[in-house]
Amino acid sequence: MANIKFNQYYRYADITKFLKQFAKDRPDIFRLESIGKSFEGRDIWLCTITRFRTGAAEEKPALWVDGNIHASEVSASTACLHLINKLLTEDPKSKEIKRLLDTRAYYVVPRLNPDGAEWALADKPKIIRSSTRPYPFDEEPIEGLHHEDIDGDGRMLSMRIKDPNGAWKSHPEVTKLLIPREPGEEGGTYYRLLPEGKLDNYDGVMINLAKRKEGLDLNRNYPSGWRIEGEQYGAGPYPTSEPEIRAQVDFICKHPNITGAVCFHTFSGVLLRPPSRVADDELPAEDVWTFKKIGAKGTELTGYPAISVFHDFKYHPKEVITGVFDDWMYEHRGVFAWTVEIWSPQRQAGIKDFKYIDWFREHPIEDDVKLIEWADKELKGRGYIDWYEFKHPQLGKIELGGWDFGYAWRNPPPHLLEKEIAPFTDWLIWHLQIAPRLELIKAEAEPLGRGSYVVRMYIENTGWLPTYISKKAVSGKIVRPIVAEIKLPPGAMLESGKERMELSQLEGKCYNGGSGGLWNADTTDERLKIEWTVRAPKGGTAKLTARHEKAGVVKVAVKLG
C-alpha cells in the first residue's frame, strides 16, 4: 500500500504514484482513470472506490469529492488522499466501511487543477488563483509590483518602507506588529506596507500591483449563474471553457448516480453551502432544512460552522459570486453540495465568534496580538517573521518580515495538517451513508388460474435522503423516477402492466420530526408496490428489475408455477 504521510504536501508526480499504487494493490475496490487533460497536458485523475463484485459503481449511489481547484490550496488534495487512504486501509476491518463500499461508491479527484498546484509547490513558487492559462490576454505585464521571493529564502513575506505618509506604525508593545495609524496622527515613524516582490518600470514614485497574466478563477467557470468577465472576474470566456472544468462537468453529467458533492478549498475553517447569489427564502424550505441538518452533522464531526455563502460569506455586502461548483451541483444537478474551507489560524489562536470574510476588513488589534502569540509558540517563530533589513533592487533599503502567509495561513503548517483534515473523512463517510438506497422487501407470483399470475415486487428506500434528493431536483425535473422492468420467459405475455414502467419517487427519513409522537404518522411513502399480470402457460421465470439513477438497482427472479 502506498505510504502517504499526512505531515507534508505532495507534488503531482508523487500523487500520481500513490494513486497508481492503490490501483495495483486494491483492484477489488479502487480504480483509477483520467477524465481529461489540464491546460498543460497533465492527467486529471479520478478514483472510483466501491466493491466492484457487489455491482458496478454506476449502479450505486455515489458521492463526488474533489480538491485543489485553486492553485495554492494544496491541503485540499491531502484531505482527499486521507479519505482514500482510510477507505482502503480500514476495509474490511471496519463493518461500517465494508457495508458502505458494498452498497455505495465514491468518485474522488484529489487534484482538479494540477498545473496551478505545481506552480504553488515549485522550489521557487508562483502563487496564482487557479489555472496557468493566460487570461484574458497573453501579454506579460510590463509594469508594477510582482509578488515573489526576492531574497531567495523560500518565503514570500511583506516589505515595509519608511514613509512619512505611511498608513502603518509599530504596535507599542508587540513592536513587530504593524497597526493602523490614527487619523490626524503625526510625529511618529510610519511605514508603507507592500507584498514582497520586485518592481518593473519603476519611476521612483508610483507603485501599483502588476496584474496577473493568469486571471482565471476556475470556480467561476461553471454553468449555473455564469456571468461575463465584466460582471464576474475570472469567469472565463464561456461556461466550462476551461479543460479542467469541462472534464469534471462532463463526468458528473454522465454519472447521474451522484447524490451529493463536497469540494475542498482553503482557508476560513467553515463548511459553505449554496446558494451564493440568492437568499435562503428563494429555495424550497425543505432543502434549506436538509442543508442545515447535513451541516449540523459536519459541525459535530469537524468543529467547523456550517454557513450560507449568501448570508454569511460575501466578499462585499453588495456583491455576489457566480458560476461556482456547489451552486451548479445544487441548481443544475439537484444534489446537496458543500465547499469546505480548510484551516482557520484565528480559531487556532483562540479567537471566537468572528465573521469570516468581514474579519479581514476590520477586527480588534487584540486579535493580531493573539495570532502572533500563537504563531510564536505553535509555529516556533516561522509564522510571523520579525523585520530585517534588505537592499531592494528598486526601492533601496527596506525591511522584510510579517506573516509568512504561505506557511501559516494558506494551508495548515505540515505538523498540524493531519489533525486538521482527519475529521472531514468521518463526515464524508457519514455523507454517503445518507444517500437513498433501493432494497427489495419481497417478490412473489400469485397464481390466478389457467396459466395467469399476478407478479408483485415490493421495494423500499432505506436511505435517509429521498430518491429525488432535493425539492430543487423535483421542480427542475432533474431526476428520473423509479423505472421497473419485467423480462418474461419464452411463451409468456403481459396481460396488464408494461415491460418498462416509469413509476414514482420514494421518500426518505430526512423530514422526520425532532421527536416521536408529535404529529407523526409513519406512512409507507418510502415503499413501492409494483404489479404485472402475466400469462405463462408453460411457467418459467420472470426477471424483475427496479432501478433509480441515484438510488441503485434491485434485481430478482420470480418463478411462475
Map the helices and strands.
Layout lengths: L11 H14 L4 E8 L5 E7 L12 E6 L7 H16 L4 H9 L1 E5 L4 H7 L23 E4 L10 E5 L5 E3 L7 E3 L10 E5 L1 E4 L42 H11 L4 E9 L3 E4 L11 H18 L3 E3 H4 L12 H7 L4 E7 L2 H4 L7 H6 L3 H14 L5 E9 L3 E8 L1 H4 L5 H20 L4 E12 L2 E10 L9 H5 L7 E5 L5 E4 L3 E3 L24 E9 L4 E9 L3 E9 L1
Parallel strand pairs: 3-4, 3-11, 11-14, 12-13
Antiparallel strand pairs: 1-2, 2-4, 5-10, 6-9, 6-16, 7-8, 12-14, 15-16, 17-18, 18-22, 19-21, 19-23, 20-22, 23-24
Please characterize this protein's 3D structure.
With 561 residues, the chain is of the alpha+beta class. It has 14 helices and 24 strands. The model has no long low-confidence stretch (mean pLDDT 96).
Give the averaged pLDDT, no decimals.
96
Task: Decide which structural class fits the backbone.
Answer: alpha+beta
First-to-last CA distance: 52 Å
Tally of helical runs: 14
| Silhouette | elongated
Q: In total, how many beta strands? A: 24
Multimeric state: single chain
Q: Low-confidence spans: pLDDT under 50, at least 5 residues?
A: none
Q: Approximately how much helix is present in the residues?
A: 10-25%
Strand arrangement across the biggest beta sheet: 1-2-4-3-11-14-12-13
The major sheet is characterized as: 8 strands, mixed
Task: Round the Cα radius of gyration to an integer and report it.
Answer: 28 Å
Strand content: 25-35%
